[in-house]
Amino acid sequence: MPYSAEHKQKTRTRIINSARKLFNRGGFEGVSIGEIMADAGLTHGGFYKHFAGKDDLYEAAVLQFICLEQPEGWQRRYVDPRARGEALARMIIDSYLSDEHFADRDASCPMIGLPSDVSRGARGVRSSFRQVLEMMAGAFEGNLEPDARPARERSLAMVALVVGGMVLARAVDDPALASELRDSARKQAFEMSGWDWDKPRPVKRMRAAAESPA
């Protein structure tokens, strides 16, 4: 009996979930198709029913980061999917530089762990990576306070700050310096935006609402 379309989609998602995790751990070259399929609890032979090759899977794994209908893991604690405008842009910065994202390498944003792999990847892989970058820059660009500097320039600089801040924080062996790097990146990103950087982070407000008596 042939599998249903729903079953095929669930299987494809399982493969992508495993790929995201393992690519973040070991990079594109450091992970085999067999390892990904084993992690997903599937046989190696089933891979080509869902993907043309490893590059195709890599592209899907990168894109999944921006295609999730609901935030998950470290994003869920900071990002309200109902938020729009400046509120959403603030949540993106806070979630990106959060302690939870710092610790959760398996579910990390692909812009942190995969840039060197992507630069050597096929066109589709680089296109997927660009879409993640553009998603973040777009969330910032449309909500910046008026300034003499072009909004596009500031939004791209903000992306560079938050991504670079997390990359450096993960690279150093001093937890205090790692925290300082992320806090500095957050402050400078907010100052570049024209928003108040010292407002309470969204997670605090969301936690307070969740803990309030009904």
Write the layout of secondary structure elements.
Blueprint: H1 5-26, H2 33-39, H3 54-67, H4 85-96, H5 99-103, H6 110-113, H7 115-119, H8 123-141, H9 151-171, H10 175-193, H11 202-211
Helix pairs in contact: 1-2, 1-3, 3-8, 8-9, 9-10
What would you note in describing this structure?
The protein is an all-alpha fold. The protein has two domains: 5-67, Arc Repressor Mutant, subunit A; 85-196, Tetracycline Repressor, domain 2 (Orthogonal Bundle), CATH 1.10.357. The chain has eleven helices and no strands. Helix 3 (54-67) runs parallel beside helix 8 (123-141). The chain is elongated, with a radius of gyration of 19 Å.
Rounded mean pLDDT score: 80
Helix content: 55-70%
Proportion of residues in β-strands:
under 5%
Order of helices and strands: HHHHHHHHHHH
Report the principal-axis shape.
elongated
- DSSP strand count: 0
Summarize the biggest pleated sheet. none
Annotated CATH topology of the largest domain? Tetracycline Repressor, domain 2
The CATH H-level homologous superfamily of the largest domain? Tetracycline Repressor, domain 2
CATH class of the largest domain: Mainly Alpha
| Total helical segments | 11
Which architecture name of the largest domain does CATH use? Orthogonal Bundle
Helix and strand content put the structural class at mainly alpha
Task: Please report the distance between the alpha carbons of the first and last residues.
Answer: 50 Å
State the main characteristics.
single chain, 214 residues, mainly alpha, Arc Repressor Mutant, subunit A, Tetracycline Repressor, domain 2, 2 domains, elongated, disordered C terminus
